[in-house]
Specification:
It contains ten helices and nine strands. Helix 5 links the parallel strand 2 and strand 3.
C-alpha cells in the first residue's frame, strides 16, 4: 500500500477535512471550465477519492463515473454526492490501470493528484519503471476516451509557495507530459483553515513536519498552494 492508498483507507475523514479547506478562491473550477466547456459531457474520473473533483464537475456534466480503490473514500464520496442531489454520478472501486468501462465511454477523463504516485510513491524517490506505468495507464485511457475526447491531469506545483515550485521528484514527469504534447497552465488553490491549530494539525498529518513548522512560523491560517493542470485532446503517445 502506497502513501496515497493509506491516506484514503485509514484517514479518509481527515483527508476530506483537509481538501475541503483547499481552493477557497474557487480557481480550480474556473480553470477547468476555461480549458473545456463541461456542459453535457460524459466524464470518467480516475482516483476520485472522497469526490472533491466529482462535486466540482457534477453541476455541468451529463454523467460522471468516479473510480477509486479505497472503499472508505468512496463511501464519503457517495454520501456527499447524495446530499448534494447529484444522482447522475456513480462511484465504483477500480484501479486506474484496469478501467472497468467500455471503449469510447467518456468525453473527458480527469485525474487529480493521482498519476504522480506512479512516478513517486509519496517519497523523494522515483519509481524505476514510472514511464512504463504511465504508458500502461494512458493505453487504458485511450481505449476509454471517445474520439475527440480530452484528458485533464491535475498535480501539485508546490505547497507553501506563492509561485510554482514543483517537487523535485516530479519534474521529469511534468517534462514527460510536455514532451508528449500536453498543454499546461497553473493556478493558486490556497488552503484556508478554520484556525491556526487546525492548520498545524492537518499540515503535519498530510504534508509533514517541515510544512507544519512553516505554518507555525508564519502563523498561517491560509497556506499557499500552486496547482498545475495539463490537458490534451485525441491522446496518442
Amino acid at each position: 500500500m502506497n502513501d496515497e492508498q493509506g491516506i484514503y483507507c485509514h484517514q479518509a475523514e481527515q483527508y476530506e477535512t483537509l481538501i475541503s479547506r483547499e481552493d477557497y478562491q474557487g480557481n480550480l473550477q474556473k480553470t477547468i471550465t476555461a480549458i473545456l466547456p463541461l456542459a453535457g459531457l460524459s466524464v470518467l474520473e480516475l482516483d476520485a477519492g472522497t469526490g472533491r473533483l466529482t462535486r466540482l464537475l457534477a453541476p455541468y456534466a451529463h454523467y460522471i463515473i468516479g473510480l477509486d480503490l479505497s472503499l472508505p473514500a468512496l463511501d464519503i464520496a457517495r454520501h456527499k454526492l447524495s446530499q448534494a442531489g447529484f444522482d447522475h454520478c456513480a462511484m465504483a472501486a477500480a484501479d486506474h490501470c484496469h478501467l472497468p468501462v467500455k471503449d469510447d465511454t467518456a468525453d473527458l477523463i480527469i485525474a487529480g493528484w493521482s498519476l504522480c504516485y506512479l512516478v513517486s510513491p509519496g517519497t523523494d524517490e522515483l519509481c524505476p519503471d514510472w514511464q512504463h506505468s504511465l504508458i500502461t495507464v494512458f493505453k487504458e485511457i485511450m481505449c476509454a476516451l471517445c474520439p475527440g475526447g480530452t484528458i485533464i491531469l491535475i498535480e501539485t506545483l508546490g505547497t507553501g509557495f506563492e509561485r510554482p515550485h514543483p517537487p523535485e521528484q516530479l519534474k521529469n514527469y511534468f517534462q514527460w507530459l510536455n514532451t508528449n504534447g500536453f498543454s499546461s497552465t497553473w493556478t493558486r488553490t490556497d488552503y484556508r483553515f478554520a484556525s491556526l491549530s487546525e492548520a498545524v494539525e492537518l499540515t503535519r498529518s498530510f504534508f509533514g513536519e517541515r510544512t507544519a513548522q512553516q505554518v507555525v512560523t508564519n502563523e498561517w491560517t491560509i497556506l499557499p498552494e500552486c496547482t498545475g493542470i495539463w490537458w490534451k485532446k485525441d491522446i496518442e503517445l
